[in-house]
Structures are given as structure tokens and as C-alpha cells.
Specification:
binds uridine-5'-diphosphate; Carbamate kinase; 11 strands
Length: about 240
Amino acid sequence: MADTPRFKRVLLKISGEALMGDRSYGLDPNMVSRVCDEIKSVVDLGAEVCLVVGAGNIFRGVSGASAGIERATADYMGMLATVMNALALQGALEDKGVPTRVLSAIPMATVAEPYIRRRAVRHMEKGRVVIFAAGTGNPFFTTDTAAALRASEMGCDALLKATSVDGVYDADPKKVPTAKRFDKLTYLDVLSRDLKVMDAAAISLARENRIPIIVFSIFTAGAFSQVVCGKGVFTIVTDEDAAQ
Ligand code: UDP
């Protein structure tokens, strides 16, 4: 049973696809609710939690660009889609009694607060779950990079990447039954072996700011709170010294 948080302040990156459940598009309310139960259990442990959510369940810039939309425009569409996911998470968390604030990197005053770093820190100190919407606010970036950026700005102790598998493997475990899971990796391992953890910009930013990246399965009940307590199954990516 998870008890004391090893990490006081964490950022959880949730891909849009994690909110899709078995659907091929959009949001599955049951899945949103399950993810929010996991988040609530970490808040109940006394850890400070912030979230960055993607939009792969709705719209990705690269897909829009391949369909003929100008890349920057398509990326703005992707960023707007993250706002929809952020509002869905906000609604579900507040239904469960968890206080939240959505802060958008693209100002939209009637929907969310604008992103102001010091205000975000204050919300977290007050025990609110801060949901960062609209990525970095810039096209040509990803929400993984937004997650590493916000984790750095918030002074998070760890950046947790929620995926559908319980860590980083040397091959796709859904296709290769003998695939081996890594317990620990260095940022350089991830970059040099091109392991699919996060994009290179996100890895570099986390490395520069010495924020461990932890990859775990959001589909395993209780996994998020276990990982925050340093338990359970995951892969941790740290600097060279810490990973030895
Ligand atoms: N995006 C962007 N700038 C950012 C973050 C996101 O332009 O700082 C756009 C980009 O088009 C991306 C989309 O938003 O494809 C959705 O984000 P992402 O693909 O990272 O979502 P995920 O894969 O995590 O669901």
C-alpha cells in the first residue's frame, strides 16, 4: 500500500490517447474518470500535482499538415484540442472533490486562466491540481516538450509519463513477447538509442534541469500513487551518476 510520497511535487503527462479508452477518437468518460481517480489518490497522499495533457485523441498537427493544412495552423488546432481535454479532466476531478485550475498557454479569458508561472506555483502551494493546457503555446512543439518545460518552471521533483505499458522496453512489448523492460536509463541512453520515451527536446530539457522522467502504466490501478512513493513497476530516466 502506497504511503509517503517520495516526490513532493510532480507533473503528470497524459497523452490524449490515454483518455480515449477503446474508442478510436475523442474522450471515453469512463477512462477520464479512472485517470482522475488515480490523480485524486496522489493528491490524497499530500503530493502537489500538475498535469499536461496531449490531444492525440482529437487532433495532431502532423496529421493535419499531411492532410494539407499549413503546419503552424494545424499545430494551433492541436493546441486548442488540448484545451478540450484539459476541461474534461477539470470537470471529472472537481466531481471527485479535487480543486483544480486550468491555465492555458494560449489566452482564452472566458475558459481558462492565462498561464502565469508564479500564479501556477501559488495554486499548487494551495493544493490545487494545475492543468496546463495549450502545450507551450507555440507551433512545432509537442505536449511532451510542454511537460518538460512546465515541470522545469514549477520546480517539479519528477516528470511522470503515463503510458499504456509499465515502462520503457527494448522493443514494443505488445508485439515482441521477449521485449525487456529497463528499470533505469540515463537521458543519454534515451537520446543515443532513440528510445521512444519522449521527444529529444523534452529529454534535453529534463536533463538540463535534472528532473527524473518516470514512465509507467496509467492503466494499472494504483500505479500512479505507487510510483509517486517510489514503488511499483516503472522505468526511471535520470542523469549518468544517479542511474549507476
Ligand atoms: N502542439 C503544439 N505545440 C505545443 C504542444 C502541442 O503545436 O507546445 C500541438 C501539436 O500539433 C500536437 C498537438 O498539439 O500534435 C497535440 O499534442 P501531442 O501530439 O503532443 O499530444 P499527445 O500525443 O500527447 O496526445
